[in-house]
Amino acid sequence: MLKGIDISNYQKHVNLDDIKDLFDFGIIKATDGWNYISPSLKEQFNKLIELNKLIGLYHFARPDIDNTPEFMRKEADHFVKTIEGIGHIEPDAILVLDYEIAVPNSVELIHAFMDRVVQLTGVTPFLYSFYSFLALKEMKEIVNKYPIWMAWFEKYNPDKGEMPETDIPWSIWQYTGNGKIGEYSPIDLNVSIMDIESWIAASAPRNTEIRPALKWCQDKNLLPANLTGREHITVDSLAELIYRMFK
Question: What's the whole-model pTM score?
Answer without folding.
Answer: 0.82
